[in-house]
Design goal:
- Binds the target DNA as a monomer.
- Belongs to the ARR family. Type-B subfamily.
- This is Response regulatory domain-containing protein.
- By secondary structure, the protein is α/β, with parallel strands linked by helices.
- The chain is about 40% helix and about 10% strand.
- The two termini are about 40 Å apart.
- It has a five-stranded parallel β-sheet with strand order 2-1-3-4-5, sandwiched between helices.
- The protein binds a DNA duplex through helix 10.
DNA sequence: TAAGCAATAT
DNA sequence: AATATTGCTT
């Protein structure tokens, strides 16, 4: 039912994935290169973040994904991450020996799609193509939905239960109501296409990353749903969607913050939140034991 | 008017 | 469980 799996010419897809590896430690560089090649990826390595940035700028479309160490002499891995996110929108995986929550948090906040802890094994690398794949799926979805924006907006405003003329007074409910003529793709029989029903936004990793990117671009203290929405440039999103997500995001961050404070001793607790703790539910693997307040 | 927050609804 | 909506406050 979903597309994506039916990619026709992408039979060999995961193979040949173009990976750029950045690490100042030549040993790790070698190891990673070897492992990645074993996964039949196409590997480029470099030991400087600035060098990586040059490579990426040189051929904007020459790589599919970046794996970067966090600690590097010439440039902070986070800085690199930031540049990549802003300039070419590639998935970036961060890696580090340091699994401290605040660092992981920083990586996440800056838009890393994954955060791997060294030592890294094949196990972790075999599946990294998923980030590229996910991105492609959603690019397709974005384009598709672009044609339907108006219809979606129609539905949003039309099927509201505020028909009784209460909320409609605010004349800024866009020009949706005006256009009833052109775009004769569908007849105006008021048959709301059932395939586009509930329109609940699902915050995929990609969408979330876009969100995070926007937040960082604005600055953490100045953010508001409106600004984020504008920066994200995702046509079908509403301000309310973003507001809701922002609210959740903040809760999530403060939760991490708390855990981070409470920690510091104990043992080596959990060590990574790379995969699981992220997608729709950034965080919370245990039940809800947090003060409802 | 935009935003945040918490409760509550879907 | 995740997201939407609402009502109240700033």
């Amino acid at each position: 039912m979903e597309n994506g799996f039916s990619s026709p010419r992408n039979d060999a897809f995961p193979a040949g994935l173009r990976v750029l590896v950045v690490d100042d430690d030549p040993t790790w560089l070698k190891i990673l290169e070897k492992m990645l090649k074993k996964c039949s990826y196409e590997v480029t390595t470099c030991c400087l973040a600035t060098e990586a940035l040059d490579l990426l700028r040189e051929r904007k479309d020459g790589y599919d994904i970046v794996i970067s160490d966090v600690n590097m002499p010439d440039m902070d891995g986070f800085k690199l991450l930031e540049h990549v996110g802003l300039e070419m929108d590639l998935p970036v995986i961060m890696m580090s020996v340091d699994g401290e929550t605040s660092r992981v948090m920083k990586g996440v906040q800056h838009g890393a799609c994954d955060y791997l802890l060294k030592p890294i094994r094949m196990k972790e690398l075999r599946n990294i193509w998923q980030h590229v794949f996910r991105k492609r799926i959603h690019e397709v979805r974005d384009i598709e939905s672009f044609e339907c924006i108006e219809d979606i907006q129609m539905m949003r405003n039309g099927s509201d239960r505020y028909e009784d003329g209460h909320l409609l007074s605010g004349g800024d409910l866009t020009s949706v109501r005006k256009r009833k003529d052109f775009e004769n793709k569908y007849d105006d029989k008021d048959f709301v296409d059932p395939s586009t029903k509930k329109v609940r936004v699902v915050w995929t990793v990609d969408l979330h990353q876009k969100f995070v990117k926007a937040v960082n671009q604005i600055g953490f203290d100045k953010v508001g749903p409106k600004k984020i929405l504008d920066l994200m440039n995702v046509p079908w999103l509403t301000r309310e969607n973003v507001a809701s997500h922002l609210q959740k995001y903040r809760l999530y961050l403060s939760r991490l913050q708390k855990e981070n404070d409470l920690k510091t001793f104990g043992g080596v607790k959990y060590s990574d939140m790379s995969q699981k703790d992220f997608p729709g539910s950034f965080g919370r693997s245990k039940p809800s034991q947090y003060a409802p307040k």
